[in-house]
């Protein structure tokens, strides 16, 4: 099986800016600020703030009336692809190698996780790898022997099977957006597993908003 990479790009388009075409690839796009239009050969979709689009199609992106800031995740075995065009700034924010096992059908899930002030995600694992990007607040992550704080606009990669503990700041809410590569068998279901059995029944502070949860082709 080919070696796949999950990459997160941050794209900024000025009002009316039109991107060069993006090739067919498994991707998810989230609108962090502003609005945009996503166009393919047979469709055009308006993307508003705090919404997402997922697909494998070749597309172009157009900045809305106030411009747009996008988070764009792509899963591929090919080289990185920045968004090109006049009035566009694009950077590769983070890349990771997701766990892909032979004989398993996968999906790509894009969702948002919100925490109140001082919220905690008890030590847990997930059934797939993914990249998160903090949008608001501040969050502390403990995983793989590391302990670090994440600021808005920063991203981090979670392998899935490695346990993670997360705690947000006490002076305000926090939320991040993520894309995970998960087995199709858990489509529409939570991917989280708590390491300590006693944590499974404790009240949880985090809430979820799922934008896309669709099968992918590898």
**CATH superfamily heading of the largest domain:** Jelly Rolls
What distance lies between the first and last C-alpha atoms, to the nearest angstrom?
9 Å
Round the mean pLDDT to the nearest integer and report it: 95
Described by strand count, sense and barrel closure, the largest sheet is: 6 strands, antiparallel
Looking at the structure, the CATH topology of the largest domain is Jelly Rolls
CATH architecture of the largest domain: Sandwich
The total domain count is 2
The tally of strands reads 16
Ranges with pLDDT <50 over ≥5 residues?
none
In percent, how helical is the residue content? under 10%
Proportion in β-strands:
over 45%
**Order of H and E elements:** EEEEEEEEEEEEEEEE
Which CATH class of the largest domain applies here?
A: Mainly Beta
Shape: globular
Secondary structure class reads: mainly beta
Rounded radius of gyration (Å): 17 Å
Q: What's the tally of helices?
A: 0
Describe this structure as you would to a colleague:
The protein has 218 residues and is mainly β. It folds into two domains: 5-96, Jelly Rolls (Sandwich), CATH 2.60.120; 106-215, Jelly Rolls (Sandwich). It has no helices and 16 strands. It has strands spanning 5-13, 26-39, 44-47, 52-55, 60-76, 88-96, 106-115, 120-126, 129-136, 139-143, 146-150, 155-158, 164-168, 174-183, 192-194, 207-215. Strands 1, 2, 3, 4, 5 and 6 form a six-stranded antiparallel beta sheet that branches. A five-stranded antiparallel beta sheet has the order 12-9-14-7-16, with no helix packed on it.
Write the layout of secondary structure elements.
Layout: E1 5-13, E2 26-39, E3 44-47, E4 52-55, E5 60-76, E6 88-96, E7 106-115, E8 120-126, E9 129-136, E10 139-143, E11 146-150, E12 155-158, E13 164-168, E14 174-183, E15 192-194, E16 207-215
Antiparallel strand pairs: 1-5, 1-6, 2-3, 2-4, 2-5, 7-14, 7-16, 8-13, 8-15, 9-12, 9-14, 10-11, 10-13
């Amino acid at each position: 099986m080919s070696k796949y990479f999950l990459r997160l790009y941050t794209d900024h388009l000025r009002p009316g800016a039109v991107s060069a075409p993006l090739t067919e690839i498994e991707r998810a796009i989230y609108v962090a600020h502003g609005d945009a239009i996503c166009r393919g050969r047979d469709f055009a979709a308006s993307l508003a703030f705090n919404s997402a689009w997922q697909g494998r199609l070749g597309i172009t992106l157009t900045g809305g009336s106030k411009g747009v800031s996008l988070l764009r995740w792509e899963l591929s075995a090919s080289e990185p692809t920045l968004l090109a065009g006049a009035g566009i700034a694009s950077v590769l924010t983070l890349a990771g190698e997701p766990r892909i096992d032979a004989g398993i059908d996968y999906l790509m899930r894009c969702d948002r996780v919100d925490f109140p002030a001082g919220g905690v995600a008890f030590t847990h694992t997930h059934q797939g790898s993914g990249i998160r990007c903090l949008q608001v607040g501040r969050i502390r992550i403990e995983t793989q022997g590391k302990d670090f704080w994440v600021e808005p606009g920063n991203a981090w990669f979670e392998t899935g099977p490695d346990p993670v503990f997360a705690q947000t700041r006490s002076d305000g809410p926090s939320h991040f957006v993520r894309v995970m590569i998960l087995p199709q068998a858990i489509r529409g279901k939570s991917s989280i597993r708590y390491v300590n059995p006693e944590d499974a029944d404790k009240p949880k502070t985090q809430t979820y908003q799922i934008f896309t949860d669709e099968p992918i082709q590898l």
